[in-house]
Amino acid sequence: MKKKELNIYYSNLSAQISSDSTEILSFEQLVRIAKSKDFFRNINKYSSVSFYCPSFTSFARPFLTAMICRLLTFGKCRWIDNEGITKKINLITLIHLFGVFIYENLTYKKMLQRIDREVNQFLTIKHTVSSTFSGKVPLYLRCDLVYGYIAGGSIGHIAGVLNHLADCTGAAPVFVSTDAIPTVDEKLETHIVRIRVPYGNVRDVASIAFNTTLYPYLEEILKNKAISFVYQRSALNAYAGIKYALRHNLPFVLEYNGSEVWISNKWGGRKLKASNLSEKIEMLTFEKADLITCVSAPLKDQLIDLGINASKIIVNPNGVNPEMYSPDVDGRNIRKKIGISDSTVLIGFIGTFGPWHGAELLAQAFASLINDEGLSVPIHLLLVGDGLKMPDVKKVIQTNQIENKCTLTGIVPQIQGPKYLAACDILASPQVRNSDGTPFFGSPTKLFEYMAMGKAIVTSNMDQMAEIFEHEKTALLCEPGDSDMLAMALKTLAENADLRKHLGEAARKEVCEKYTWQIHTSKIVKALKERLESTDVKNC
After folding, report:
1. Radius of gyration from C-alpha coordinates of the chain
2. CA distance 358 to 387
3. Within 10 Å of residue 226's Cβ, how many Cβ atoms?
4. SS3 48
5. How confident is the model at residue 13 (pLDDT cuts 50, 70, 90)?
6. pLDDT tens-digit map of 210-248
7. In 3D, which of 357, 412, 350, 352 has the Cα closest to residue 381?
8. Mean pLDDT, residues 313-338 taken together
9. 61, 159, 271, 312: most buried by Cβ count inside 10 Å?
């Protein structure tokens, strides 16, 4: 049998599908193959391998990745970056990458010690800031070493704040990011960081070392800019932003969406290699921030428990662009595309299939609903997105033999998301509780998008969902983790078009009045100004 070509795409960079001549894998899928017992069966399986990556130095384990790519084919093997530049993975390349691998593994501990000393120094610095915004521009930093995302809640949040900062401050922000973000206003001054990420060969260490190259980059591109304040989206081990704010006496706003150290320990299944330093970097950003904006009350409680001053923390749930997500969006072409008639009630879910999303619970509830002989209308399940829990979702679907009643689209670009939501009659977001018993700290962006679409919503009766929604007025609320209750709620809505209409209209009205990105961003800017003008603000 003729060998296929293999194309590997970093993260969710591509929505392409495999063909008769080409197989498509994500980088995550490649990692899973490399860790599997069957990896040796894949040696020289392909005629060629092309790895489409953000850059040649910005992803984890470059030497091991090169070795894996090389072993998958004895033919042409190459990496292609975002600029279209090609690197051949041959013996010379492997020798060079191996040299870097050895060097980084021999020297990373000394590098961590240097950074630890620097972080300790910053913890002792007094942070004196100016409250004058006139004639200055905000700086927005996105420092994550995550690339190629075309959809997701983080995309909506970043674009939502960036696109409204000018309205709230009178000056368009400067956006510095490690990757391009879909739906961000193209008119904004944007700098995509293409600098080397050192120590990528050492697990978890690259995000720490990245600060040593990011900070000089900031100094260079901002040397002629008058910055009013630094706004940084929280990211694992990111402290270049607070370093810049401290050095230039600038206000620092931290957008806190949860502890990346906790997420790695609880959801990532392992402790970070330099966990103590990672925790110290988090504390540095918490303590020196002039304002911390977090998306839920549990996050504020976490910060207060750590000793952070409550007066500089605001709870600001996520939001939505009500023009992009609107009842006016036409989803008929999507229904036609997936073969759903007008008489079929379409139940939808969109997301990254994380441990907290409950997508597998939704699949189970839908399966039991399909088997309910008392159901009076035809139904279909539409699952948009992909992620960690997708294998569990597929297992539920296959076990219950309901493949013909379910459509899994994979990841779709953010800009196309509203059309898929518009195609649905019911939208579900069955979040589950954290496995360790801690409060659910999320603010699901999908829920605000659901509300703006004017659709009937089923979600979990816990934490922020219970605060935002009123049962039987703007949504149906279910006990978290209860698939039977979830199935019953879905059945109630499937069989009651009037109730769907009532809930959808009420939810749309609620979100437009309280939870747009314009309102979200204005709260941040207002809180920062009040904080800087308050006599309670002292040198930190």
Report:
1. 24
2. 12
3. 12
4. strand
5. very low
6. 999 999 999 999 999 999 999 999 999 999 999 999 999
7. 350
8. 96
9. 312
| Cα distance between residue 128 and residue 68, in whole Å | 50
Contact indicator for 431, 360 with CB cutoff of 8 Å:
no
- The mean pLDDT value of the chain amounts to 92
In terms of Cα–Cα distance, which of 413, 417, 405 is closest to 349? 417
Please report the pLDDT score of residue 29 as a whole number. Answer: 83
Give φ, ψ of 176 to 5 degrees. -115, 120
- pTM confidence score: 0.90
pLDDT of residue 286: 96
Rounded Cα gap, residues 47 and 76, in angstroms? 7
- List, in sequence order, the alpha helices (H) in 151-225: 153-169, 206-209, 211-221
Residue 20 φ then ψ, to 5°? -65, -30
How far, in Å, CA of 49 to CA of 3, rounded? 11
- Identity of the amino acid at 214: L
CA-nearest of 425, 434, 440, 412 to 351 is: 412
Phi, psi dihedrals of residue 155, rounded to the nearest 5°:
-60, -50
Q: Between the CA atoms of 111, 139, 319 and 412, what dihedral angle is there, to the nearest 10 degrees?
A: -70
Q: Which amino acid is at 35?
A: K
Strand arrangement, sheet containing 313-315: 189-192, 174-177, 137-142, 227-233, 252-256, 291-294, 313-315
CB under 8 Å, gap of 24 or more: what pairs does 402-406 form? 402/366, 402/367, 402/370, 405/366, 405/370, 405/379, 405/380, 405/381, 406/363, 406/366, 406/380, 406/381, 406/382
CB contact at 8 A, 68 and 40: no
* Burial zone of 411 (CB within 10 Å; 0-12 exposed, 13-18 middle, 19+ buried): buried
Residue in 255, 284, 316 with CA at minimum distance from that of residue 448:
316
For residues 508 and 454, is the Cβ–Cβ distance under 8 A? Answer: yes
Burial (0-12, 13-18, 19+ Cβ within 10 Å), 532: middle
At 285, which helix (H) or strand (E)? helix 275-288
Residue with tokens 């930093």: 141
Flag whether pLDDT at 469 surpasses 90.
yes
